Amino acid sequence: MTASVHIVGPQFSSFVRSVQLCCEEKGIDYTLGAEVDGRPLAMHSPEHFALHPFGKVPILLHDDRRLIETPSICRYLDAAFDGPALQPADPWARARVDQWTGILAGYVDQALVRRYLLEFVFPKGEGGAVREEAVAAARPQVARALEVLEAQLAEGDYLVGDDFTIADAIAAPMLDYLAGLPAAEGLVAETPRLVAYVERLRARPAAARVLVAPDLGRG
Fold first, then answer.
1. pLDDT tens digits for range 130-185
2. Cβ-based burial of 31 (10 A; exposed 0-12, middle 13-18, buried ≥19)
3. Residue 82 three-state SS
4. How far apart (Å, rounded) are the C-alpha atoms in residues 94 and 122?
5. Those residues with Cβ within 8 angstroms of residue 57's Cβ, 6 or more apart along the chain or in another chain
6. Is residue 179 within 8 Å of 188, Cβ to Cβ?
7. Sheet harboring 59-62: ordered strands across?
8. Contact 26, 85 (CB under 8 A)
9. Domains plus CATH for the chain?
10. Structure pTM?
11. Top-level EC class, please (predicted)?
12. How many degrees, rounded to 5, is the angle at CA 182 between CA 157 and CA 71?
């Protein structure tokens, strides 16, 4: 049977991987890729803006429903499908998960992905070179974000206690990328709890199917 859940976006996107992780953790059948109804979707095309008014990914298509923004997509998948819960039942604990999804999708993503990692993946310097000045300028923000996560991980094995939640699904891809970047070794080494956390995330069966070497030629 064809999966009714389709994640629109290239698999190398950290946010696409977060949605994919939620599907894998819950056992949801899904398809994935930068195409809709079997047709390639050109990024920032009129067809793309018709699905997402700001031309971003991921976009979730579930039957005749469309949803955008990673935290909202992850919360919907958790509520709409059977499988292990990715949010606590307790209102305070759930609010704390929501808090960390917002922190990660906003501040941490900006520091780690937008201002740092993307300079290595899609360098904007002359002749396609990495702009060392941009990397140097971003490093203090990366260090600060890692310090915040390191402090939070003193509370448990995962970001909100000892159970994997949506917050961890959002954190995992960006931290996996960062931990695998040789240029970031010194930064990551300063946060031993975070290093152990990344290894814990990578050891999960769902992560083994999602945190794979990216194919940057797709989409």
1. 999 999 999 999 999 999 999 999 999 999 999 999 999 999 999 999 999 999 99
2. middle
3. coil
4. 36
5. 8, 9, 10, 13, 15, 16, 34, 43
6. yes
7. 30-33, 5-8, 59-62, 65-68
8. no
9. 5-85 (3.40.30.10), 91-208 (1.20.1050.10)
10. 0.94
11. transferase
12. 45
Q: Which two tokens stand for residue 54?
A: 């700001």
Cβ-based neighbours of 95, under 8 Å, separated by 6 or more:
none
Report the sign of the C-alpha dihedral through residues 32, 178, 172, 97, in that order: negative
Each residue's pLDDT tens digit, 101-141:
999 999 999 999 999 999 999 999 999 999 999 999 999 99
- Which one-letter DSSP state was computed for residue 130? -
Q: 133: which 2 tokens? A: 């000045």
Which amino acid makes up residue 187?
A: L
Instruction: Confirm if 31 and 7 have CB atoms less than 8 A apart.
Output: yes
Beta bridge partners of 68: 59
Phi, psi at 121, each rounded to 5° = -80, -45
pLDDT of 152 reads 98
Cα radius of gyration (the chain): 17
Burial letters for 175-189: b for 16+ Cβ neighbours within 10 Å, e otherwise? bbbbbeeeebeebbe
